[in-house]
Every structure is written in C-alpha cells, then in structure tokens.
C-alpha cells in the first residue's frame, strides 16, 4: 500500500504539479512531506499526516521549515530545529546581527 501511495505522489509531482505555479508555503513541499511521512510512520498514518499538512498549507499561514516528526501527529512540528541542517537553518532562521 505504501508503494502505491508513493507512486501516486510521484505521479502528481511529475505530471500535475508542473501545470500550476509553485504555491507550497512549507519546506519540504507538501508532496515531499507526504512521501517522507509514509516512509517514516507507514501508509495509513503517513497519508493522514500528509493530508493534515496539505490542509495547513494555505495563504493565511506563515509557512517555513516543517519537517516530518519522528512520531505520528497531525500538527505542525514543534521542534524543527532538531532536523535542520546548516543550509536550511540559514534560509529559514537567519542570525540577527
């Protein structure tokens, strides 16, 4: 089941997403988030996490860095700094001088 869902998201990324302008307010994008969630917590819970992320991605939200947490949750990752690498930290959390 996981492979089928991941293939569907890959199909979306390759054929459907390019038709529309980029609009995801998060990094990683919502489709990449869903793939990572499915790989991390399984097909059913990963799909639910992905749908919750898509519902959070709208024009009235700030967005930013929101990696897939280690455990199942439908809420935004409260501790994204645990997952950051140096490039992401510079982009989303620049140091104030």
Automatic annotation (TrEMBL):
What is the protein name given in its UniProt record? Putative membrane protein insertion efficiency factor
Mode of membrane association = Peripheral membrane protein
Function, as annotated: Could be involved in insertion of integral membrane proteins into the membrane.
The gene behind this protein is: yidD
The main location class comes to membrane
Q: Which organism is it from?
A: Bombilactobacillus folatiphilus
Q: Where in the cell is it found?
A: Cell membrane
Q: Which Pfam families does this one have?
A: YidD (PF01809)
InterPro entries (UniProt xref): Membr_insert_effic_factor_YidD
PANTHER family on file = MEMBRANE PROTEIN INSERTION EFFICIENCY FACTOR-RELATED (PTHR33383:SF1)
Record-stated family: Belongs to the UPF0161 family.
Q: Which NCBIfam families match?
A: membrane protein insertion efficiency factor YidD (TIGR00278)
Top-level taxon of origin:
Bacteria
Keyword annotations for this protein, in alphabetical order, are: Cell membrane, Membrane
